[in-house]
Amino acid sequence: LGNISFTTLIDTYQKSYDLYDSLLKDPTTPSNFIVYYKVRLAEFKDLLDKFKNDTAHVNTKYRAIYIDLKNYGFPLPNEDSNHVLKFFNTADYNVKAEPLGVAQKVEDLTTDTKTKENQRCVWNPAVQQILFYRVDDDPTSSTTNEFCKYTITTKAGVELSSGLIKAKFANIAPVSGDGTITFKYLANEMIPLNLLKYANDDGDGPVSTLITKPDKPQFWVNEKGVELPIYLPSKTSKDGIFTVVKADREGPCPGKDSKNTCYGGNIYIQAKNVFNTFNDTLSYNVYDANGLISAKPGTINLISTATTTDDSRSGGGGGGSLGILSLASLLGLVVYRRYRK
Fold it and tell me: How confident is the prediction for the chain on average, in pLDDT?
């Protein structure tokens, strides 16, 4: 197994909840499915409540793998004294989980506690899942695996099943989100833009659950303690209408990308021409604290008010028509040049 983005996990639960909610509201849903759909709806509502509102982070951990044994069909049905088959559910069964350590394969595991002191593998009764995670921020190397053992017993203590979980913990890439900023037509503005306002590194989960780095930053900070997580594929907007004039900070990007320039703080954007009457876009990426770049660039929409509230140009006449503000500006330039002469 491997950890997935925590935000993706929440989205999956939400989509499942929405699915069963829509099926229950659908008048064409067969009546013999109603009970099952209600059970599933309640299950995903409970998970959403316990994951999204977990301010104490009892149920959610950093880079955790959340293992629902019901999805794996464990254990085999158990027949009680009345010959009733009891399938897996935590009302009839107990679950125990314990970390085993790190090795290339299970045969290489030893009793040395150093290999598992930063591992956690526990049964969480609140969400009825096994939580497998680390508390030291170390991703699993390409040559090793992380191991955990789980055991299922009846309430009477009879062992029914014992299994092994082999996993890898990976750093989840940050997300460069989209945004919009507006330029005032004819104002010749240089607008400060905090791109980190639109980005996040939430996919790894709550960083406060790390024992070794509970205050780990979201974004890249270099060896001198300077935050430089923003990368601009181009300092000019897509159609060349706007340009990045400067930034609060700049320096080499992390790791293998050190030949590129990264930025920190605000970047400052300006229209190349105050008479611009078009919109454009600017792309950017961010690096997380581990130096991993966002998988997809974010898009900032650059909107000129000439296309919205300040569109005082003539609507008829084609591309050569001028609004009264543009005409006044041009006349002002003529007077200025004559004065200079």
Answer: 87
Asked if 88 and 73 touch (Cβ cutoff 8 Å), the reply is: yes
Q: SS3 of 339, please?
A: helix
What's the CATH architecture for 60-170? Sandwich (2.60)
| β-bridge pairing 280-286 and 230-231 | antiparallel
DSSP string, 71-95: GGT-S--EE-TT--EE-S-TTTEEE
Distance CA 254, CA 261 (A): 9
> Tens digits of per-residue pLDDT, 147-169?
999 998 888 888 888 899 999 99
> What is the model's pTM?
0.83
CA distance 97 to 19: 32
Residue 149 in contact with residue 156, Cβ under 8 Å?
no
Distance separating alpha carbons of residues 307 and 302, to the nearest angstrom: 11
Q: Does this chain's domain 60-170 share its CATH topology with 175-314+321-325? A: yes
| Bridge partner list, 85 | 79
20 residue type, one letter:
Y
Is residue 112 helix, strand or coil? coil
Are the C-beta atoms of residues 325 and 331 closer than 8 Å to each other? Answer: no
Give per-residue pLDDT as tens, 44-103. 999 999 999 999 999 999 999 999 988 876 655 656 666 666 666 777 788 999 999 999
- Do the beta carbons of residue 267 and residue 195 sit within 8 Å? yes
SS (H, E, C) 164-230: EEEEECCCCCCEECCEEEEECCCCCCEEEECHHHCEECHHHCCHHHCCCCCCCCCECECCCCCECCE
Fold of 175-314+321-325: Immunoglobulin-like (2.60.40)
Give the pLDDT score at 275. Answer: 85
